[in-house]
Amino acid sequence: MSSEAAGAPPLPAPAPAGAPQPFAPAPAGKATLYRGATVFDGTGSPARPGTTLVVDGERVVRIAPDAEVADADHPGAAVVDLAGRHVIPGLIDSHQHIATPPDRPLAEAVLRRDLLGGVTATRDMADDLRQVADLARAARVGEIAAPDIHYAALMAGPTFFDDPRTWQVAQGATPGETPWMQAVTPETDLPLAVAMARGTFATAIKVYANLPGDLVAAITAEAHRQGVPVWAHAAVFPATPAEVIGAGVDSVSHVTLLVHQAAGRPLTTYRDKPPVDHARFASGTDPVMDGLFADMRRRGTILDATAGMWAYAAEEADDADAAAAARRNSELAAALTAQAYRAGVALATGTDRDPDAADPWPPLHHELAFLVRECGIPAEQVLHSATLVGARSMGAEAERGSLEAGKLADFVVLAEDPLTDITRLRTIEYVVKRGRRHDRP
Fold this sequence. Notes:
- The protein has two domains: 31-88 and 406-439, Urease, subunit C, domain 1 (Roll), CATH 2.30.40.10; 91-393, TIM Barrel (Alpha-Beta Barrel).
- It is built from twelve helices and 18 strands.
- The relative contact order is 0.15.
- The protein is α/β, with parallel strands linked by helices.
- It is globular.
- Strands 6, 7, 8, 9, 10, 11, 12, 13, 14 and 15 form a ten-stranded mixed beta sheet that branches.
- Strand 9 (177-178) and strand 10 form a beta hairpin.
- Helix 9 runs antiparallel to helix 10 (320-342) and helix 11 (363-373) crosses helix 12.
């Protein structure tokens, strides 16, 4: 008897399928055994040869020596032979901009390139969140091949919003008056402002420029009260680096901004930066920097150094003077980042590079090589920064950043060992993100 004949209401029509999701996370219920790999799990433990990863759906359920994992314990499981291969956690770019200005085809191309280069998560540090939110959704459900995206809503002083970039990311609205890009003054209703930022589904609030130290502290306190992390520029102008760190922000970006703690005059605005005595910091032993780094270590403040960005700037400079200035900043970034590492500061690996879909490898590879080659940081520690510290920088360490039972199955399969040579990251064979395999063409 039909439901209509029985007097029941008719069944609803099937919902539309929506957009295709060819890159969706692997479904739960069928295991895959990745056998025989040398696994660097990102936890701080040494790499383990002859290791099996058991993946079910989008999760790692076990990691153990090959001999301890019997095929019979996983009936129907697919078995993948990784003998001679090296496995590392998915990489994290802790500083990207994918919608300044919005360009959806370019963003999708860059994100696909990054994923196939081993980047399984990225931190977008303020953009047009109308587009970024849709990209994040599309990446999460598998409509596009892309890293998972965690993103920030921006707050800054009103005088910052004549910056042309703010108009690029607020087209159709007024910069400083949108939930994803807010001008803040002492009169701002901060509980409402933070709630508006949360309404964009932002992971965090980014504190950018032209705010005094007491207002940076007030924003940070209210954001934390509402459970929202705060990511900030290392100097916010007029807020000094010490004031930014003292405000309790969760991470600071751009290591070269830290030198303004030693400026010879008070800081004013983002565009009015004092001159830098590069020679003073070249040895990597400056006592003012030591003081900042000690406070960061004590507080657990993460440094998103973006150390290698100036090397790119030197290569792309239009004239000799600009190239020379960029090289000086590159040397400064290397010296300060090395000093921060020696002081025990947690380093994340951000790139802050404009999208360039023509480069076959993610900018993150260049950043990691810079940290090893120019900053003298061991490859194992650089990979730790690019995985577990990167996950911490976006508040996602419970889900990703290391290969452990219960975490997401985000990992990279390589033909050669990147711990012995960081450039061997370019031997990627394929990437697994949320249990879904992505072959590098």
